[in-house]
Amino acid sequence: MSERPLTLQATPAAGMADQPVEIRVAGLQPGERAEIHALSRDDRHRLWESHAVFVADDDGCVNLAGQAPVAGTYSGVDAMGLFWSMTLDPARSGPPSSFVKKELSPAVVDLDVKGALGKTVSARLERNFVTPGTEVRDVREEGLIGRFFIPPGADEQPAVIVLGGSGGGLDWEKAAMLSSHGYVTLALAYFGISPLPGILRRIPLEYFSSAIVWLLRQDRVRKDQLAVLGASKGAELVLLLGATFSEIRAVIGIAPSGVHWQGFGKAEAASWTRAGRSLPYAPVPMARFRWECLFRLLTSQPVAFRRLYDLALRNREAVQLAAIPVERICGPVLLISGSDDQVWPSGEMSRMIMERLAAKGFPYPFEHLCCEGAGHSFRGPYSPATVVRTTHPGVPGEILLGGGPAANARGGRKSWEKMLGFLDGHFQP
Question: 296-334: per-residue pLDDT in tens?
């Protein structure tokens, strides 16, 4: 009997970034070990890698959906373990940061399998962010800077404005992936891109009012089904926007705050303004914290900003004055947090928001998903989840995000499923 060739089946070969992949290997000897490597380059041309060693079953096959590796960058049965466990070598790539996607081109993943008897096989996968036929255009009009995604079809669809956090720029990945589920989306920048403000301080709410008016004028947008989604400071912002503008009918806050915190920069200032006036904000004890930053920089330790906000929350009078009136939101609210968030206590602040909504008799559904063991960063499902410390504009050294790779990966998947279910349940794409 002739020896069977080694085969690698990975389907779909070209799928969506939030779609799981089935990986099967055949043609091994029963009990033979096979090592699978996964490699991908982000848009900074940095190499991300993962690997796992499997033992072939009695048929000489390996199925990642039903088998756990005996060694590798992840453990346990996980069909997508090779994807979220990819790591970046800091010795070759500089300071740690998340997988970077700046272009709409698909993320490419190369899989290589090597059996113990020397046979090899490889495959290439594409992870797409937009479906074929999606209209994508950059928005540079009426003072707005964003990226607009219109899914295929002729009908009006619900719309989602997607806002990033304190890093600035465009959080277009979530907007792109939501468009593949039938939503018209606008990834909107509000600082960090010229001619917008350079840092997050005294950002006028009128800017977002203009964005809402612009979006609701577009032909494919359902005027009565507008949601806002934001992460970190962007989550603080979407709660504020929902409480301010009645056109918004659903709010999703990832790692949120129900308190207006002070903005960034050397001098103390508000994050947000309206009609030229600063909104009340809770200050943070920066003087004390700068000493801790200096100490950790000198000792090469990441800074946990959470301590700063834990201290600031004790200033109950300031926190009360700066609380966002979330009960004014005109639609359902979904909050998502990680129990090990080390940037700020998003879990505790989410519970404060839930308690306020309940106490005020909020008439719409509201829910808080706390992902056990997850940190501050909730990227798309299956993207590399191994970065637990990173750099941040304006902060010397590194900051601690929290969580562990496996917990962050679970949180990314669960939160994405929860967001899609939330939107599908309250809107009709």
Answer: 666 677 888 898 899 999 999 999 999 999 999 999 999
Structure tokens at 295: 């100490």
Domain that holds residue 258: 135-426
Domain end marker among 128, 158, 185: 128
Same-domain check for residues 196 and 278: yes
Lowest-pLDDT range, 29-33, 54-58, 284-288, 301-305?
Answer: 284-288
Is the sign of the CA dihedral 361, 366, 371, 375 positive or negative?
negative
The tokens of 389 are what?
A: 């410390």
Quickly tell me which residue has 């929902």 as its tokens.
Answer: 242
Paired tokens of 169: 């720029």
Measure the CA–CA gap between 71 and 117, rounded to whole angstroms.
18
Residues 102 and 186 both lie in one domain? no
What Cα–Cα distance (Å) separates residue 51 from each residue in 43, 110, 322, 326, 347?
21, 12, 48, 45, 33
CA distances from 30 to 57, 122, 128, 173, 226 (A): 5, 20, 35, 42, 55
pLDDT digits (tens, 9 = 90+) for 179-228: 999 999 999 999 999 999 999 999 999 999 999 999 999 999 999 999 99
Residues 103 and 145 in one domain: no
